[in-house]
Fold each of these.
Amino acid sequence: MEIQGYTLPDELYYEENHYWVKEEGDLLVMGMDDFAQKMAGEIVFVQLPEEGKELTAGKKFAKIESGKWLGKVFAPVNGELAAVNEELETNPGLINSDCYGKGWIYKIKPSDKGEVANLIHGKEAVEKWVLAEIEKYAKE
Amino acid sequence: MEAKYDFERKYREQILQCSRCGFCQSVCPVYGATLRPALNARGKMLLLKEVMDGKIELGKELIDSLFQCTTCASCANNCPSGVNVPEIIKQVRKDMVNIGSCHPAFAGMNEVLQKSTNIYAEDELPDFDRKRDQKAAYVYFIGCVGAYREDEATEGALDLLDRLSVDYTLISEVCCSGVLEDVGYSLNPKLASQNLERIFATGAKTVITGCPYCYRTFTHRQEYDELRKRGITVLHISQFLKDLDFGVTTDKKVTYHDPCDLGRHCGIYEEPRATIRKIAPDFVEMQHHHADSLCCGAGGGVRGAYAKNSLAMARRRLKEAEDTGAEILLTECNSCVHNLANAKLRKQNIKIYNTTAFINELMTKKVRNK
């Protein structure tokens, strides 16, 4: 789906800080959405914690930086970090060039896959959320 | 013919003194990361000579050369002709700002520091679970990177001061704004006044800075002269700690990165080493150290404007640290910690700390093991 120039694929789940999540076998893949990568500008650093790190839904577990912006990454579900995209160490710009593909960031082994239901999903919900976000950031 | 720009009026002779020997090339961190001769000091001086001769215009095409300098002063330190390149670059940037040819990231930094209290335009200054603006013997001044980007390093420094029972207070600090002088603008006197008022209100006779750049600004800039007039001493934390005993040592091999702002710009080389030798008997120097230290690539606005090259410079420095066989890389600047830690690859095992945070970690382990 395209909302005012931002691409937000319908099949994905979205965490409210603009990270997308999708199922891949037993794992969940996570990345930054198009709205966030456009707002942030050129991404220059992505913190890639060690695999096995315990994640608590809603708690910060990593940082992402563009030139003068620091973003916190919050766990979308409970679980543990299963893999990271090591290409981002030397080429964090993949998040800008292909945020839903080569720019994926983390893979998570969820404690309960059903927790994705707590995320924003479905055309109507995503549209409502993103329009509100566009309005919020336009005021700032 | 009358000089068109201030850089020419002030530095014409110095620019002409550049003998093009190229000693600067081997030590320039930007050249080291990019291998582009137009980006080292010699290349920049040649460009400025061409501008003075009227052969090329000072304009947007020169931004990537003249704004891509960390002002680390490694070139000046190695220049047999005595050309003070960082001062020339700072003036040229001001001239370029005046004619509207400024790198957008540098212009953004100025814009932020006219509206906000810190270089990141963050809304809220973290309090690190401590009271601010109290009466105390010492003020601990964190600096923007320590406050907003390297919170763990700052927590370590503050915990260490607590362990040492230092009577200090934090203040509602704002950016010292010294960096604006490096990026083509001028220090913001309003921000300086706010810091001065808040320091004076504490009654402290000493300001300890966690940031070498803030130390440099407080001790060198006239906007902070009132500190000297009132007899207030300013110390970088490495100077404050050098005579103290911590009662802890590490058996790990340790090396030390000299921050440019502390070393080449302020001449503080031995104080950090005096502390490190006490806590790390197995201390080794890197190939480049003291005045010959390699820049981490973060300074002069380069991290904000040219992040990729800035991180490439940090990776070169990390390689030198790894080549010593050290497990621990210490430094005394949160900005260096930030850039080096961001540059570190997952396969690299070396750990990077601000010295204060490392000492605090050793002391914490000692308490736990008792």
Amino acid sequence: MIGRVLATIPIVALLAIDLLLPRLEMLRQGPDPVARADVETAVAKVGEPMPDFTLPDLDGVPVTLSDLRGHRVLLTFERSVDW
Amino acid sequence: MPYRALCGLLGAAWLVAGGGLLAMFVAYHAPGGRSEGLFSTMGPQGHYMAAFAGCAIVVWGCALIAAAWRPLEARGIGAASALGLVLCAAYRLMAFVVGDYAELGNLLRVEAGVFLVLALGFVWLRPRAPGAAS
């Protein structure tokens, strides 16, 4: 009997946390802290030059935006199947 | 009787779920095969780990069915299953707090709640050891 009661305590505690979690929104994190930090400091604004960045192309070769200065640039962001 | 039903039903569900994870691995690596929807972001490594989890879940299901068949002889499976369900619920609650799984919303909390209720069932419905004091 004592063993069952002792085993019940952590289960009920987790159930209480489960029910209380929606009230603790401040604990919830964003998708990726690093990405969010980047977003806050490198946001592209309408009418202003695009912040410079380097990203891999489809072949994995790094491409820097400033290297394409003078050319027309179309940016597309896709989520690959294996990502 | 309720304990046998609990073991039997969860055991059958685990056999289906574990078999599904193994089938997902096979389908992913079949010629031209790719996963879709929720599992499309797992990649080869994710499918590899999912298949490993599938094997473990199939064994868990078989053990539960054995416990449904002979509950007194397999009392330990009930206790182990309660622990396993608590662990499953605990990491779901952690996943709910971590934003990477935000698209799953409250499904994580609902699953955790169901697992915890099932764990309580295993704790309290499990037959007592023969000769144990009540």
